[in-house]
Write a structure and sequence with these properties.
133 residues, alpha/beta, Nucleotidyltransferase, domain 5, 6-stranded mixed β-sheet, 3 helices, rod-shaped
Length: 133
């Protein structure tokens, strides 16, 4: 009695299960990526045509030659006094917004310090720019 074993390899490939798996992974990554919030500063940048989405409640001006920051263009304040002064001015506002006016030659480090103060207190920040000619 000769029993023959025949091993037949099915050469057909069904891609339906693979496409289902890829589709489910795609949905999973789309949902989880929207849940992850990056640790970044939220900035409202005005358009060059001077259209701003939010009206600033307080403006902070930074000059390269002056050791002071100017709140609303007239009140000189040091960086250590700035959070207290801004808290007083923005107290009770529904949507507190700060506009930062910095000269071109001011280092980004000084601007980021003010942005960090605003981020800690959950204030919105507008980085003011001059219109393009």
């Amino acid at each position: 009695m000769a029993i023959k074993r025949t091993l037949k390899v099915d050469s057909a490939f069904s891609a339906t299960s693979m496409s289902d798996l890829v589709f489910l992974l795609l949905i999973f990554f789309m949902i989880t990526s929207t849940m992850v919030s990056p640790n970044a500063l939220k900035l409202l940048l005005p358009q060059s045509s001077n259209q701003v989405q939010a009206k600033p409640a307080v403006s902070v001006s930074i000059s390269r030659n002056s050791p002071y920051l100017y709140v609303d263009g007239t009140v000189p304040v040091t960086l250590s006094e700035l959070p207290i002064k801004l808290s007083q001015l923005l107290e009770g506002r529904e949507d507190p917004t700060i506009s930062i006016h910095a000269e071109k030659t001011v280092t980004i480090d000084e601007v980021v310090k003010i942005m960090n103060i605003a981020k800690e207190r959950r204030w919105k920040v507008i980085l003011a720019t001059s219109p393009e000619d």
